[in-house]
Amino acid sequence: MLWTLSKFELKNLVRDRMTAVMILYPLLLGWLGKYLIDNQMVEGQVLGVIAMMVSLMVGFAYGAMAGFSLLDDRDDQVLTSIRISPVPLAFYVWFKIVFIYVIAVLAGFFLMWFIGDFALSAGEILLVSMLSSLQVPIVAFLVNAFAHNKIEGFITMKASGFLLLLPIGSFFFLDAKEWLFSFAPGHWAGKALQYSLMRPLIDSGLMEMNLNFYQYVGIGFLYNFLLIAVIYRFFVKKNDM
After folding, report:
1. What is each CA distance from 114 to 100, 132, 154, in whole angstroms?
2. Contact call for residues 196 and 120 (beta carbons, < 8 A)
């Protein structure tokens, strides 16, 4: 059954023009970032911001893709059909979210490795990619909690885009001001990436950050899981699940 659902989800994602674009968009953005960095067209803090933005964009874009895929299912009465089938509706919804989450993790890992500007091991890149990709369920459930069609979904997605800007803003603060941005889901992955960029200066004692790499990652997982639980309950209430 899992294999059948996987083929069904992949076919749906590729078939829809909007979701197909969302799959390619972060990868194209990553190529652009790599080009700018390799050709030394950006440097200093701008380089760090571009590298962080590209890496965080994956989770957000794939979360929007998951959200629109759920909206499609609602429009096509797929969710109604699932309700009267032996497959629990919650199982189907979570399968869709986890399926796209896995794609986001793989894409995020590839992008961070491809950019090659982070002082991270393969395991650390995977951890950050897994953390950043937790934006998938957050954005997907948020879109479907407030939108009833694709037009409303697009507006909701655009409105939630500020959550992606906050980690970029926090890049410029290494003191207590960074906590003003910490309610954004991507803040913790962004700060972990910033720590990797600043690691040579931190190791030499020339710079300090409030937490270390693993503290940002650990707290980030706990915070994002809490957000997912809250937003999922709101999604369930709005959709009578």
Report:
1. 21, 16, 30
2. yes
